[in-house]
Amino acid sequence: MRPSYLLPLAGLLLSSLIPGQLCKICEVSKENYSDLKPLLSTMVNSKYTRGIQAANILLSLKLVGIQNQSLEHQLTQWIQEDMERKGSNLTSGQLALIILAQKACKNTSEVFIRDVDLVKTLEEKFRAEIGNMEIHNGNPLTNYYQLSLDVLALCLFSGNYAVTEIVDHFAPDNKNYYLGGHFSVDTGAMAVLALTCVQRSIMSGKIEADEKDLNKINHYRESLVNKTLSEEKDGLFGNTYSTGEAMQALFVSSNYFENEQNCQKTLHTVLRNVSQGAFRMPIAAAQILPALMGKTYLDVNNHSACAHSPDFNISSDDPVSVTPTVSPSNITVNYYVQINETQPISVTVKNGSVFLDVMEAAQKKNRTLFCFTTVDSSWGPYVISVQGIQANNNDRTYWELLSNGKPLSQGAGSYVVKDGDNLGVRWAKY
Ligand code: B12
Ligand SMILES: *[C@@H]1O[C@H](CO)[C@@H](O)[C@H](O)[C@H]1NC(C)=O
Ligand SMILES: *[C@@H]1O[C@H](CO)[C@@H](O)[C@H](O)[C@H]1NC(C)=O
Ligand SMILES: *[C@@H]1O[C@H](CO)[C@@H](O)[C@H](O)[C@H]1NC(C)=O
Ligand SMILES: *[C@@H]1O[C@H](CO)[C@@H](O)[C@H](O)[C@H]1NC(C)=O
Ligand SMILES: *[C@@H]1O[C@H](CO)[C@@H](O)[C@H](O)[C@H]1NC(C)=O
Ligand SMILES: *[C@@H]1O[C@H](CO)[C@@H](O)[C@H](O)[C@H]1NC(C)=O
Ligand SMILES: *[C@@H]1O[C@H](CO)[C@@H](O)[C@H](O)[C@H]1NC(C)=O
Ligand SMILES: *[C@@H]1O[C@H](CO)[C@@H](O)[C@H](O)[C@H]1NC(C)=O
Ligand SMILES: *[C@@H]1O[C@H](CO)[C@@H](O)[C@H](O)[C@H]1NC(C)=O
Ligand SMILES: *[C@@H]1O[C@H](CO)[C@@H](O)[C@H](O)[C@H]1NC(C)=O
Ligand SMILES: *[C@@H]1O[C@H](CO)[C@@H](O)[C@H](O)[C@H]1NC(C)=O
Ligand SMILES: *[C@@H]1O[C@H](CO)[C@@H](O)[C@H](O)[C@H]1NC(C)=O
């Protein structure tokens, strides 16, 4: 252990960002924990939990201190199976999540040799991300949300990484923080968590860095927090689904929630979203729950934060909100594929259908124009190709989903279409 940097840097700290402990947490009070039950029952009862989704859920349950050995065992099993199925195709961020989930809230004495191997593999995958950026115009194999998860896991679980490399790649003007020209709050928040971890490691002497780099990291955090705060609306940051991660970032890097009104506004809106069924997807529930209970991903190796279990009960007989049922009536919607030109079609589907049903109906009518493929992901089916044209991270291309000209904030498998909707998929760059 190197000498602590705390003393010489105390002055610097006071004049800039506090490293975390002094920041204000904004959480649901114990007497209102029953508002969180829909989230828990979604997570506990999801029979279709698979792969990386299971890692998100395990991480979340451990962080909030819910102990259910049979559930943990089942989730671990799913994670193991997914790892075997994907093999070397597991992405860096998926591996980082698995490491976070498996090692969260564990005594160091319980750490297995296999875990050490996983961290080594993550180091290699992180290197490959950086390597890809060097030959593909600054584009990583995946995205900066995942690179941030990588740094977070490496930082928390004693992996190797170079502070100078973090400083080079995580500057707030890096294009990878932006998707479709817009600051990605999820991505920025994950980066703040990672950078905060790195900064704490420097402060405690766990990793070496010069003062210039420490200052830069601090500045990056502040700037990313500013960008996150400028995306605030009705107490949400970005949208409903980025707010949990944004809250975590604000807990460790800002005094925003010292203002009680800010806190109440955010909790109020999020809890209303919960009651409206916005977090019906297990992964969405898993991403919002820790923040609502005052936890962050930086707590995974903080025993005092992990040890407490909440004094409320989860039970599998709590009602799970179900997706709207398909009704016997039919609705008609417009659908189009936009590449350089727009190819429209009108299709009739059952009332209550999702976007994907519309795509399938169109495909049935004309395969040449409307054929498409999807891959399974933690958020449901991800549209990877349309008309044989495939999304590619090296070119930052993807298929954007739109309704009445506006990008959807849900996927093809979840967005319920309405009569007369004008739906489209657009070949786009992020
Ligand atoms: C990076 C990212 C993208 C990239 C993905 C490509 C890339 N370069 O990696 C781009 C910009 C292309 C993208 C597109 C979309 N995204 Co996106 N994306 C993310 C982000 C920031 C990180 C995902 C990630 O890497 N996770 C970590 C890894 C370890 O998990 P993973 O499951 O292996 O990740 C893969 C999937 O998440 C998939 N993916 C990414 N976005 C989406 C969205 C949906 C609906 C699905 C099914 C899959 C999917 O790509 C990831 C990499 O392969 C998340 C934020 C979050 N909180 O998760 C949003 C997020 C998942 N995306 C979201 C949305 C809405 C979309 C779009 C539907 C937007 C649109 N209107 O077109 C499209 C997907 C359309 C389609 N073709 O099916 C929402 C989903 C919310 C919800 N309730 O469903 C999120 C949560 C952002 C938000 N706060 O709104 N996304
Ligand atoms: C519990 O939630 C209600 C609104 O649902 C709110 O008025 C009340 O202040 C909350 N209690 C605490 C202690 O925060
Ligand atoms: C624990 O998880 C299992 C699923 O693995 C579930 O059936 C059971 O109800 C859970 N127990 C409690 C107390 O919630
Ligand atoms: C990894 O992906 C490649 C290309 O998609 C595929 O050919 C290969 O079979 C995959 N490997 C595994 C272990 O799934
Ligand atoms: C870690 O192990 C010690 C000694 O066995 C025990 O007292 C402590 O409660 C454990 N902590 C956690 C978080 O399990
Ligand atoms: C962040 O915002 C605060 C308040 O608006 C401002 O004083 C500060 O300079 C900003 N910091 C960065 C790095 O942009
Ligand atoms: C969450 O609540 C806000 C504010 O009421 C609303 O604008 C938004 O549409 C809701 N999100 C979802 C997914 O229901
Ligand atoms: C660890 O968790 C406890 C309890 O939640 C908290 O008071 C403390 O500040 C945390 N420590 C760090 C370094 O985050
Ligand atoms: C949780 O369940 C236990 C036993 O079933 C019961 O004694 C306790 O009062 C319950 N706690 C709450 C907060 O409902
Ligand atoms: C809805 O459409 C299907 C298939 O086109 C058709 O068989 C069915 O009769 C229609 N139902 C109603 C209520 O119009
Ligand atoms: C769209 O048009 C541009 C310029 O006319 C052309 O280079 C490109 O190949 C076209 N893209 C597709 C997918 O047809
Ligand atoms: C579709 O169903 C919803 C409720 O499920 C209903 O409000 C709406 O009127 C229905 N639309 C048509 C065209 O049947
Ligand atoms: C599909 O659309 C293309 C282009 O408009 C057309 O040439 C073709 O005949 C259509 N196929 C069917 C089965 O309608």
Multimeric state: single chain
Molecules bound to protein: cobalamin, 2-acetamido-2-deoxy-beta-D-glucopyranose
First-to-last CA distance? 43 Å
What is the CA-atom radius of gyration, in angstroms? 22 Å
The helix/strand series, from N terminus to C terminus, equals HHHHHHHHEEHHEEHHHHEEHHEEEEEE
Query: What summary fits the major beta sheet?
Result: 5 strands, mixed
Under CATH, the topology of the largest domain can be stated as Glycosyltransferase
Task: Domain count, please report it.
Answer: 2
Number of strands: 12
Main-sheet strand order equals 6-5-12-10-11
Mean pLDDT, to the nearest integer, reads 90
Low-confidence stretches: 1-18
Give the % helix.
Answer: 40-55%
| SS element count, helices | 16
Shape: globular
Descriptive tags:
430 residues, alpha+beta, Glycosyltransferase, Ferric Hydroxamate Uptake Protein, Chain A, domain 1, 2 domains, 5-stranded mixed β-sheet, 3-stranded antiparallel β-sheet, 16 helices, 13% strand, globular, disordered N terminus, binds cobalamin, binds 2-acetamido-2-deoxy-beta-D-glucopyranose
